[in-house]
Automatic annotation (TrEMBL):
InterPro entries: Cell_Envelope_Assoc (IPR051599), DUF218 (IPR003848), Rossmann-like_a/b/a_fold (IPR014729). This is YdcF family protein. Pfam families: DUF218. Transmembrane segments: none annotated. Residues 32-174 form the DUF218 domain. GO terms for cellular component: plasma membrane. It comes from the Bacteria.
Amino acid sequence: MSQELRITEQDLGAAEVLWEFHCVYDTPRPADAIIGLGSYDLRVADWCAELYLAGFAPFILFTGSAGNWTRDLYGMTEAEAFAQRAEKAGVPADAVLLEKRATNIGENLRFARAILPTIHSAIIATKPQTQRRCQATLKHQWARLDAMITAPLIRFREQPTEHHGMQALICEMVGDIWRMNAYPARGFQSEHPVPESVERAFAYLVGRGYTAHIPDEK
């Protein structure tokens, strides 16, 4: 993480504009599978378990190796940590599949598709603030899938965790707006318009220094 920033109410207001854009929250309906995208946030595993136990799908695929924020967090892959959490919530071990190589959203979805080539529908579970990027990436990586993008129902100011505080969260959302703008031309995801209000909030937060999740390409 970059230097500690003094987070102001104006910063939080701009960040909440990004949060509202990033959130999608499709309504879950019965599907062939639940696909849980690994991360630092085990509440996603809890949400996958809740969906499975409610009968939305016959199994869960957890996908994830380690990323920027989980390399030293679990002592195992994200997929394994999520599986352990789901099993503690009551999901049978034989209802869980693991994909342990993915290090970003594109790989999460591409590797999941390779494991589940014949499914027609899936509930994709991720963090609230990565739903929009997941949606745009799916349109490019797995367009034929009937996908519902979901996340735990968490409010913006409740999202920071012990290992990923508010500054890190804002940097993550700023970086993902950068990716929404840059990645279509690179073939990583589909075009997805970013509203002017979101672009203004993004520019303000970049000016404030929330740039730790934007690649240094100089």
